[in-house]
Amino acid sequence: MSGTSWYGRTFEIRLGPPGHGGFCVGRHEGRVVFVRHGLPGELVRALVTEDRGGSFCRADAVEILEASVDRVPSTCPVSGPGGAGCCDFAHATPAAQRALKAAVVEEQLRRVTRIEREVVVEPVAGYPADASTGWRTRVRLPVDAEGRAGMHRYRSASVIPDLRCPQPVPRAMDGLADRLWTPGADLVVTVDGDGVRHVVEVAPAETGGRGGRSGRGGGRAGRAAEDRRGRGSADRGSAGHGGRGRGGADGERPGSSGRGAGDSGSGRAGGSRPGRAEGFPAGPGRRDRPGGERRGDEPLAAPFDSGSASGGSVPEPGGGEGVPSRRQAMARRAAAHADRVEYVIEGTGRAVEYVAGRRWEVSSTGFWQAHRLAAQCYSDVVADWAGLSPGARAWDLYSGAGVFAARLAEAVGRTGAVLAVESARPAVADGHAALRDLPWVDLRADRVERWIGAHTVTPDAVVLDPPRAGAGRDVITALTAAAPDRIVHIGCDPASFARDLALYIEAGYRLSALRAFDAFPSTHHVECLALLER
Ligand SMILES: C[S@@+](CC[C@H](N)C(=O)[O-])C[C@H]1O[C@@H](n2cnc3c(N)ncnc32)[C@H](O)[C@@H]1O
Fold this sequence. Notes:
By secondary structure, the protein is α/β, with parallel strands linked by helices. Among the domains are: 1-71, CATH 2.40.50.140; 138-204 and 327-346, no CATH class; 371-533, Rossmann fold (3-Layer(aba) Sandwich), CATH 3.40.50. It contains nine helices and 25 strands. Strands 7-24-25-23-22-19-20-21 form an eight-stranded mixed beta sheet, sandwiched between helices. The chain has a six-stranded mixed beta sheet with strand order 1-5-6-4-3-2. It is globular. Mean pLDDT is 82; it is low at 207-292 and 295-324. Bound molecules: S-adenosylmethionine. S-adenosylmethionine is lined by residues 230-232, 235-236, 254, 298, 367, 369, 375, 398-400, 403-404, 421-424, 427, 447-449, 465, 467.
């Protein structure tokens, strides 16, 4: 490039195939342009929103000159050019959204593993093929300086105070826009398997730090921080989901949370917390908030994805000053994951969930699959692919509260054994309670990287569902050295999923089955499950 930034320029561009991250790839004057809000084949007028030099820049399709037959009126009034980052594909039919994701998975497999394979992205079992809204049971909403809950602008820390997101299940957002919240806090909203809504306000990072309001000792906070070290980037589905989002909420979100195992967490809010207008000074240091309080645990599985996980923020339209650097963006993400006090505003903060007839009660701010039908869908595939018989041995790595461990345990029976590992202590405690009738499950709080080195007895099957960043070389090297016959690997990021698959193949495993689910409709995120056999 000439050295002159294209930031703010507009030009016509014909869009090519989708790239990983919710955009289509085009070329203009010899440069690659990643264009959001368009579809393959469309001719659009693009506005450059980010240009850091080099061979590519980023743009929004601000005018559609020749529309694709797959285009529909966007189902999301909050995303779109200059808007929020979560509903990347809300302007495409659900079938076209799935085709875009399939193309991205195929391309990642081809490029990273050299596997040529047709991928079909399926609706999550039980979810209508022609729908793309009303599926999300967990959202994490940032609160702006005025106390309004909203969504992160794409690749920005700024908050759009508009809650008309089409992703959440009905009633999830009701009334949240009618009141003010603590500036800088996050709201974690969960609608559980009984239809009960839980609203938890997570204190701003600077006021909710260790030792925060509770006066609880640094020891507890210290434990929470230690537990949290195993956490990957949240993973999934973050509405913000970033991808499983980043919460994508991407900013996707173990820790004892300062609560003892089995602690029901919280105490009720005792009704709604008054808004600021009713005399609650907002801001740092407020410690007299009514309602239950608890320490934070695992970040939400699927926060709204602002795209910030993909590296830094971008200038606001028309601006360019004050753009957070990569380091600032990292610091912001670290703060978001720091030990923060939680206030239960509505519900109990304890979400009841059901999978395959089993009941879990988990922290409403901890990890659970974001799509209302995903846990059941994946656990059915896991149970099928693991191919276990009575007396067999299995591992469930990154187990959360043991959704897959329960299915494996039912297959191996009491003469078998299931070892499960999860770094978030509250999830482990919740798993112990839900699986107490399955004493042949050994669910441990540990980091997989540490645990796996000490377990060398060959299991028959292993399921692993790591955070967005994937399992990585160290874990997969240790896992393949243990030489299980079957490995079921689950990944919510096609790039890290493909990198992990390449490591299995390098270790002598073959990909014998692959399924991909549109577990995050309207977004670019997709969940992939692979069966690897020796
Ligand atoms: C994608 S979730 C899967 C949870 C579970 N399979 C489920 O479906 O509910 C990933 C889980 O890995 C945990 N985790 C993240 N990093 C870890 C690590 N290094 N060791 C163990 N667990 C980890 C997170 O706390 C989270 O519960």
